[in-house]
Amino acid sequence: MKVLFFPGSLETGGAQAQAALLARGLAGRGHEVRLLTLFPGGKFWDQLTAAGGPVPQALFERRSGRLKTLRALAAAPAELRRRAGASPPDVVLSSLYLSNLLAARAWPGPRPPLVWSVRGSDVPWTTIRRLYFEAGRSLAGRPRAVIYNSSAGRDWHLRRGFPSRGSRVIVNGIDTAVYFRDRTRGLPLREAWGVGSEEELVGLAGRLSPMKDHPTFLEAASQVLRRRPSARFVLIGGGTKRLERQLRAQVHRLGLGDRLVWAGEVRRMSDAYNALDLLVSSSAYGEGFSNALAEGMASELSIVATDCGDARKVLGDTGRVVACRRPTRLAEAMVEALEEGMEVRQERGRAARSRVVEHFSVEQMVSRTEALLEEVAASGGET
Q1: pLDDT for 111-133, tens place per residue?
Q2: In three state form, how does the secondary structure of 370-383 look?
Q3: Which of 195, 163, 178, 154 lies closest to 288, judged by CA?
Q4: I need a labelling partner for 39 at 20 to 30 A (CA). Which of 88, 98, 223, 357 fits?
Q5: Rounded to whole angstroms, how far apart are CA atoms 207 and 151?
Q6: CA torsion angle for 22, 25, 27, 29 (degrees, to 10)?
Q7: Could you give the strand order of the β-sheet that contains 114-118, starting from the edge strand earlier in sequence?
Q8: How do residues 136-167 score in pLDDT, each as one tens digit?
Q9: How far apart are CA 193 and CA 364, in angstroms?
Q10: What values do phi and psi take at 242, rounded to 5?
Q11: Nearest 5 degrees, angle CA 286-CA 325-CA 320?
């Protein structure tokens, strides 16, 4: 099967990580995968290039300035068709709103058939995101199938006018050969962060973004400290300087300064998970399937999460789930998790990893996606 895969970007983020895993998985099963992005570069671009395939190709060279970027976007549909060549692919798979729109503009007819991948739920309405969403909804009848990576995401989009025909839920895949328990791998980070062996390290892994609701996490952390003075906290992930300044001001007001580490981007997240005693997700909206939760589960961590997206379905009974935007409830769950004995924590961790292996493996994600793409390709675009 010839697959043209257009994720748009291979920089950082959960969707980009899944795109890289899927591209490798499909190529490894003998499919001809042409992997295209708008611009070159990024964490997962580098990984795929170093791994030997499929090697990504960019439609355009990196451009600075809004006008140049807009010109590139306007030219992208024609460039996609040109890159497809004289022999069209059996199926076109695109991912995220912008790439989905560009693919629909590139191939308005029935052949080659399109498959969209849509991520997240409860989308925050910035002006540009609303434009993407409305345009996507108007064109959502074009693709022969739409893949959602969470039930929450599918339900949210269907309630807002996306068609149910052809909609499928295929959850993310977690590479358990990368994410596994080995606490020695986390020791260098703990040392670099100045965290002692007797201190309990609680981490939030996610970019600095309003949807991750760092303020609720920080407020909960200040409450945890009153009951667990040995606790330390770390924020893992980059973001805008403006939001970072706001969060640093909150940290100062709460008196968390010497108890909190600003880690920024961490290249090897598997090491970061192994540095933690407890992983927390405080997201308030926008989540679908959280890679961070599932990666933490594969690393056999104790986990506390807010009830956002499919968090409850992902964790099952292996972690604690509390209401969003409730710092006191989040703090209580964090203290409960930290007060559990080591034997109980380890048992929870083993159960969490088993759940990932059983339900969220890369092999399952690739197999389910492969089956859908083959179905669409074989049916001439009719699902």
Answers
A1: 899 999 998 887 766 777 788 88
A2: HHHHHHHHHCCCCC
A3: 154
A4: 88
A5: 23
A6: -140
A7: 57-58, 32-37, 2-8, 91-95, 114-118, 145-148, 167-169
A8: 889 899 999 999 999 999 999 999 999 999 99
A9: 36
A10: -60, -50
A11: 85
Whole-angstrom Cα distance, residue 149 to residue 45?
22
Tokens linked to 52: 């030997």
Euclidean distance between CA atoms 48 and 133, whole angstroms: 30
Which structural domains are found in the chain, ordered by start? Answer: 2-173+361-378 (3.40.50.2000), 183-359 (3.40.50.2000)
Token pair of 271 as six digits:
């090491």
The conformation of residue 56, written as its DSSP 8-state character, comes to P
Query: How far apart are the C-alpha atoms of 380 and 21, rounded to whole Å?
Result: 26
Residue appearing with tokens 């964490």: 43
Residue in 252, 258, 365, 355 with CA at minimum distance from that of residue 298 = 355
Query: How many helices, marked H, and strands, marked E, lie in the chain?
Result: 15, 13
d(CA 240, CA 98): 21
- Count Cα neighbours of 270 within 13 Å in the Cβ-side half-sphere: 12
Low-confidence ranges of the chain (pLDDT < 50): none
Handedness of CA 130, 69, 44, 235 (dihedral sign): negative
Distance CA 262, CA 250 (A): 13
Q: Are strands 231-236 and 302-306 parallel, antiparallel or unpaired?
A: unpaired
Q: How far is CA 192 from CA 48, 198, 231, 275, 306, in A?
A: 29, 15, 17, 11, 29
**Strand 260-264 relative to strand 167-169: parallel, antiparallel, unpaired?**
unpaired
Percent of residues in the chain assigned helix, strand, coil, to nearest 5: 50, 15, 35
Check residue 185 and report its DSSP letter.
G
